[in-house]
Amino acid sequence: MTYAWDFMPVLRHLDMLALGLVNTVKIAAASIVLGVAIGLVLALMRLSPSRLARAPATAFIEFYRNTPPIVHFFWFFYALPVLADISLDPLAAAILALSTQSGAFYAEVFRGGIVSIEKGQWEGARALGMSRAQLMRRVVLPQAIGRMVPPFVERSFELTKTTALASTLAYGELLYQAMQVNSQTFRPLEVYTVVALLYLVLLITASALARLAEQRLTAYR
Amino acid sequence: MTTTPLLEVEGLHKAFGPHEVLRGIDLAVMPGERVAIIGGSGSGKSTLLRCLNFMEVPTAGRIALDGRTLGRRGRDGGTVYPESELCGVRRRVGMVFQQFNLFPHRTAIENVMEALVTVKGTPRAEARARAEAELGKVGLSEKRDAYPSRLSGGQQQRVAIARALAMDPEILLFDEPTSSLDPELVGEVLRVIRGLAGEGRTMLLVTHELGFAYHFATKVVFLADGRFYEVGTPDEVLKHPRGERTRSFLARHSEFAF
Ligand SMILES: Nc1ncnc2c1ncn2[C@@H]1O[C@H](COP(=O)(O)OP(=O)(O)OP(=O)(O)O)[C@@H](O)[C@H]1O
Ligand SMILES: [Mg+2]
């Protein structure tokens, strides 16, 4: 069987796909920023000596680790309005679902980076009279950040791919736009090939940037 | 002449859970005294040293610096040590570790400057000049811009000593400073420590280098089972030990030469 590839009809709708790509980047970027903020708070809570701070953070993280992301999307879009009497547009629901979920994962990335710093570093700093805040800022975090980059990038890629779920809320990100183009062109092979390539280009560019950042942060090794 | 001890320890206990490591240590260190602490593995030498700069908080007992007892009485009768007070103590009691614990993301000179700037608030230019002087003293001026990963163990330990000295500590604690070094690098670190003795610094040193301890110390303590089993001059403890356990410990370390 030979299939006659014809990308022309798809390329004629490239503007729709480009818009989808922009929207995908938009959800991903907003969710990463918000997720980092949520993750920092959760990580600090989990590192706290107080059980009262640790327990809710642990519960939050476990909840998100053990439930599928699509449920979060539906929950924020369909359930939250019923409960809280606020209705979210698809974009807001998608960002909330993604940033809370990735916040839970980022928290583990941050915490993991911090606790991976050898005991000797904490002691070396403490023995010089540094307070906890000083040793965090000057000794632990500068080293931990370098170690956080690879798992952070991994999580962020996961997140970027998960943005495709926003299509289920009829938000015009890349996959949703692709479905629209498909229904106009009836060229699923070409459409989804192009879409796959677009995701690929996006993530490869991002990973090159991340490698650069990591090299800078760990140049002292 | 009456002088207050620079460091005074009374009835010091330290337990980790049910495991009692230190069981009543009494010690007075006069300004300029150099104490060598020896003893078998697991006898509590490191734990004792670490209690003195509060890397470990004692379970019971009293520690006084320059005549002032540290901590304050808590509601349950025990002593509480506010973190801010402990930061202050650690500035006055410097520590050099077996594993150096240099900051790998900072160059040699930045390692020495770090606490001057962060903890003492010394202006950077002044801190840099001080750090250069300290690196000069340990013979590492030309390595000032090297990262620790580019230094030998002996050089790293000398940077660590310079880092501790830059804070102008009243007391210096050394926990087996040469134990993780290749044999040929031990000498350069011991020379630096001997130089500090010549300056009349107050120091406590945990070591297995008994030959060095003999020449270095003004007082030697042999620690066994969390207590001072034998205390005396280097001559008394190392050459004419009275206790049975001191003798058998020394016999096991008979390779040292005075
Ligand atoms: N943080 C800790 N938690 C639990 N137990 C500890 C801790 N630190 C030390 N110990 C225990 O206390 C005892 C004394 O340890 P310490 O490190 O003081 O011995 P040491 O005399 O320095 O031995 P070495 O010559 O091997 O360095 C050991 O049995 C050790 O396992
Ligand atoms: Mg030890």
Automatic annotation (TrEMBL), chain A:
GO cellular component entries: ATP-binding cassette (ABC) transporter complex
GO BP of this protein: amino acid transport
Coiled-coil residues: none
UniProt superkingdom: Bacteria
Localization in the cell: Cell inner membrane; Cell membrane
Record Pfam families: BPD_transp_1
Key words, A-Z: Amino-acid transport, Cell membrane, Membrane, Transmembrane, Transmembrane helix, Transport
MF terms in GO: transmembrane transporter activity
PROSITE patterns on file: ABC_TM1
InterPro entries according to UniProt: AA_ABC_transptr_permease_3TM, ArtM/GltK/GlnP/TcyL/YhdX-like, MetI-like, MetI-like_sf
Record carries keyword Phosphoprotein: no
Record has Transport as a keyword: yes
Signal peptide feature range: none
Main subcellular localisation: membrane
Membrane-spanning parts: 20-44, 73-98, 191-213
The ABC transmembrane type-1 domain, residue ranges: 21-210
Topology versus the membrane: Multi-pass membrane protein
PANTHER family: GLUTAMINE TRANSPORT SYSTEM PERMEASE PROTEIN GLNP, MEMBRANE COMPONENT OF AMINO ACID ABC TRANSPORTER
Protein purpose: Part of the binding-protein-dependent transport system for glutamine; probably responsible for the translocation of the substrate across the membrane.
Family: Belongs to the binding-protein-dependent transport system permease family. HisMQ subfamily.
Protein name from the UniProt record: ABC transporter permease
Organism: Methylobacterium indicum
Record lineage: Bacteria, Pseudomonadati, Pseudomonadota, Alphaproteobacteria, Hyphomicrobiales
TrEMBL record, chain B:
Recorded superkingdom: Bacteria
Any one GO molecular function term: ATP binding
Membrane topology field: Peripheral membrane protein
Keyword Lipid biosynthesis: no
UniProt keywords, alphabetically: ATP-binding, Cell membrane, Membrane, Nucleotide-binding, Transport
Record's subcellular location: Cell membrane
Pfam family, one: ABC_tran
InterPro entries documented for this protein: AAA+_ATPase (IPR003593), ABC_ATPase_HisP-typ (IPR030679), ABC_transporter-like_ATP-bd (IPR003439), ABC_transporter-like_CS (IPR017871), MetN_ABC_transporter-like (IPR050086), P-loop_NTPase (IPR027417)
Major location category of this protein: membrane
Family matches, as PROSITE patterns: ABC_TRANSPORTER_1, ABC_TRANSPORTER_2
Gene3D superfamilies: P-loop containing nucleotide triphosphate hydrolases
Domain ABC transporter: 7-250
PANTHER family given in the database record: AMINO ACID IMPORT ATP-BINDING PROTEIN, L-CYSTINE IMPORT ATP-BINDING PROTEIN TCYN
Family per record: Belongs to the ABC transporter superfamily.
Protein name per its UniProtKB record: ATP-binding protein
The organism's taxonomic lineage, starting at the top: Bacteria, Pseudomonadati, Pseudomonadota, Alphaproteobacteria, Hyphomicrobiales
